[in-house]
């Protein structure tokens, strides 16, 4: 609530709006879309056309990927000779989707295929020791990894050696998309990864399923069916969105056409999942894939057996698919309950250890936290504290962890800097996984923070909201929302455009969703426009009708029963800037009164500049009486800074007197001075107010604070 009254939450950063009008002479787009295109570094008509009208024809030749020729030749040999092939995947939505793409492709050419998904808890990420034994003791001729394997140098070597020792020849093809540690790249028959050193592939940001799709594309070309990969665009789109890779370049094309396939012609498994998860199956976009479909797919690996998701994606039986979908939905409910419990425990650990306050990276750990949700907990900690977070689960002497980062801090390089004390690690700039001996976990906490000391600036730790455009009233309407939708799919690298409007009037407010959310109606330049503020139901008591506010939002289309309406999705909201300035001055003045050390010059300047009035800082006997009665009725209470403003507004409304946060806090200080109440400021900046043991009469003229304030006001007049 403090942010609403003082504007001390996220920093609002406005993206440059400079435009080269020549870029748009041949494109039928309005001014707002033009600005958004420029902000996405689209400066030529050709770039703009390919962005607004993505085509499968713009996909790169899959054979530009290093290792593709060797891999395709070897797989075609396996097909022709009916060899025994194993697909080795990963347990997340990306790995599951990539595994499913290859299984369905091989099934389509009547080739039997086996797959292996490691257990998240027992085996962890990558080719595990258990998997090494499994592969080595079975008669596979070819193993193809998807979404993993780029750091499996020793595991691949061990598999080759064990098979050789028993007279078995086996080939291994690695397909992956994670960043490479050159010392750990395996000696496999072929490696397909756009991040390979010296790889000239034009697009580096494919997810694991995206790389698998490129492999199928290449195989299709050689087998006389160059468009066969289009059958698997729905899987690749889900994986691309779920893996939080940039939605530009090839990923934009894959996602655009993949979502279209989900809408128009989903496979049996995806159709069953839609029936379980979505009430309106006509509204499918990157947001719903990310927050509705992907969590259910991930839940299989997080809470139990990821192979359930593979079976869902690869079955053609509708009854089976329905059972699998229900299973995943149940797993997702358990996942939500488990993650919330662990998140609360992690927050408790952090807030009861003062050491975390001065550390730029959070490292938190506990015995037997569920491995399947610690990555989500890390994300929630980053959201809460705006610091990179490592969350570890300790079991049997080792700590298995997941990490998430903030913008500008490369997690992979950070983990690489600590490689001498890590058992294994891997990931991207923004997310990663690692394992460490529990004896080294505090050393890791110390060293990773030493590394971050010079890598993370103080500014990086201040959360910000990047605003694309400050708009006027005629820029907020259903038509603009439809025009903006031309830029979909939205996600990293192409986020949904964020707008700011200053001076909206709150006409109506209502808490919804059992009090979790707020539904608001704004008057914007004579029009009433509805908005929803998710997760901010607690602001209901802080907001008043007729408040003048500045809002940050996205413009979205709400399709209810076939009727389209504009709906603003609020991202931030606070009182208008002139009111914030007034509140800041009044709060600062009140806290200086607390120290009897008020600089009258800036207070005088505030009056001269018409930010505040003399009447705003006059504390008279009648005002004190009103405040005393109001606070006395509440008994022992604790007031935050925001509560000072909330209660002052309540008093102002009830009494029709000019009561504000300054007068309320000064009154409390006077009551404490005179023994009418005990007012204590605790370490969190909250005021704890307790009634006296017995009520006695006092003389207000005995108050030095009141006398000091009155003299200050007299001097300002």
Give an account of the 3D structure.
- By secondary structure, this protein is α/β, with parallel strands linked by helices.
- The protein is 42% helix and 18% strand.
- The chain is built from 24 helices and 21 strands.
- α18 links the parallel β13 (469-470) and β14.
- α9 (233-242) crosses α12 (286-303) and α14 (318-351) packs across α15.
- The two termini are 33 Å apart.
Brief overview, please?
This protein has 717 residues and is an alpha/beta fold. The protein contains 24 helices and 21 strands. It has four domains: 161 residues, OB fold (Dihydrolipoamide Acetyltransferase, E2P) (Beta Barrel); 278 residues, inorganic pyrophosphatase (n-terminal core), CATH 3.90.1640.30; 109 residues, Diaminopimelate Epimerase, Chain A, domain 1 (Roll); 138 residues, no CATH class.
* Residue windows where pLDDT falls under 50 for at least 5 positions: none
Second rung of CATH, namely the architecture of the largest domain: Alpha-Beta Complex
User: Which range does the strand content fall in?
Assistant: 15-25%
- Output the structural class: alpha/beta
Number of individual domains: 4
How many separate helices? 24
What gap, in angstroms, lies between the N and C termini?
A: 33 Å
Q: What is the overall silhouette?
A: elongated
Rg result? 30 Å
Which CATH first-tier class of the largest domain would you pick?
Alpha Beta
